[in-house]
Amino acid sequence: MSETPDARRGRTAGVLLTGGLSRRMGVDKATIRIGSETLATRAARVLAAVCDPVLEVGPGWSGLRAVADEPRGQGPRAALATAVSVLGATTPILLFGVDLPRVEVDLLELVAGWPGPESAVPMHAGIPQLCCARYGPAALALLAEPGPEPGPEAEPEARRSLRSLLTHTGYSPIAEADWQRVASADALDDVDTPQDLARLGLGFSL
């Protein structure tokens, strides 16, 4: 018998990132309204359909339980570390950026349920999509531990990046051919400017 979505939800926690500075958008991206939903409430709805528990790291725009990312604007790795301090490091975490308005439940289910215990990251144009990815226990444990990462000395900026984290702990790439079976080719296009929203054909209000 195949596992139901409800049975899978408790195996992966969800973390919604809403704390970015949104400099190029001109307003907080999380508050942009597309139809009847803001980007934050839409992302919360989609993420909560796949994960349990679900946590927002940011100002609290989504209606989810929220924890502040202090100081704000330190990047997604710092936000994920904040989430690990609340949720712990034993359950995989699906990290989801608020600025991905084309991502739907099917794609998040694919990423959350990708085989194997390691982190799982969709690839798009050869680039790992780090803010729509599942982080496994090895990566989360490293975030939970103070001190430098193992391996060669890294530049301070690199030590703050998700890419550096996955370089040390490894991950399973999800090829475009795999995730595009359940999502459109532009599903992982993020929105940083009003022009990005227009390019995706999204009617919006700032």
Question: Which helices and strands, and how do they pair?
Answer:
Elements: H1 5-9, E1 13-17, E2 33-34, E3 37-38, H2 39-48, E4 54-57, E5 66-67, H3 76-87, E6 93-97, H4 105-112, E7 119-124, E8 127-128, E9 132-135, H5 137-144, H6 156-159, H7 162-169, E10 171-174, H8 176-179, H9 194-199
Parallel strand pairs: 1-4, 1-6, 4-5, 7-10
Antiparallel strand pairs: 2-3, 6-9, 7-8
Description:
Mean pLDDT is 85; it is low at 152-158. The protein is globular, with a radius of gyration of 16 Å. Helices cover 32% and strands 17% of the residues. The chain is built from 9 helices and 10 strands. By secondary structure, the protein is an alpha/beta fold. The strands form 3 sheets. A 5-stranded mixed beta sheet has the order 5-4-1-6-9, with helices on both faces.
Largest sheet descriptor:
5 strands, mixed
Give start-end ranges of low-pLDDT stretches.
Answer: 152-158
Mean pLDDT: 85
Total beta strands = 10
Write the H/E string, N to C.
HEEEHEEHEHEEEHHHEHH
SS class:
alpha/beta
Counting H and I runs of at least 4 residues, what is the number of helices? 9
Provide the spatial order of strands within the biggest beta sheet: 5-4-1-6-9
Radius of gyration computed on alpha carbons: 16 Å
Beta-strand content bin: 15-25%
What's the helical proportion of residues? 25-40%
Question: What overall geometry do the principal axes of the alpha carbons give?
Answer: globular
Q: Could you tell me how far the N terminus lies from the C terminus, measured between alpha carbons in angstroms? A: 46 Å
